[in-house]
Design brief:
Alpha-Beta Plaits; about 35% strand
């Protein structure tokens, strides 16, 4: 199964009160679970840098990961950057 990193930047207009973020996150999560059953969320992190959220996911279907990123963009009022990630030990073994 391939590992992907989805980097998300929320739009300034995504929500007006920080409390509203919980509902937004729940809505996006529910949509992704329903429409992207082949994507497994491994972890999510909030950051204080260039990106607001970093999600690590696994899937054998790149198209479902692409759909998940589009759902985040459309319903999460955000921009995303998605990268495939190779575990360090696997990378070194291929050298």
């Amino acid at each position: 199964m391939a590992t992907y990193v989805i980097l998300t930047r929320l739009a300034p207009t995504a929500f007006s009160d920080p409390k509203d973020f919980k509902a937004l996150a729940k809505d996006v999560s529910t949509r992704i679970k329903a429409q992207c059953p082949g994507v497994t969320w491994k972890s999510s992190h909030v950051t204080l840098g260039r990106f607001d959220i970093i999600d690590v996911v696994e899937s054998d279907d790149q198209r479902q990961v692409e759909r998940a990123a589009l759902i985040i963009r459309a319903y999460g009022h955000a921009t995303t950057e998605t990268m495939i990630a190779t575990p360090w030990k696997e990378f070194l073994a291929k050298l």
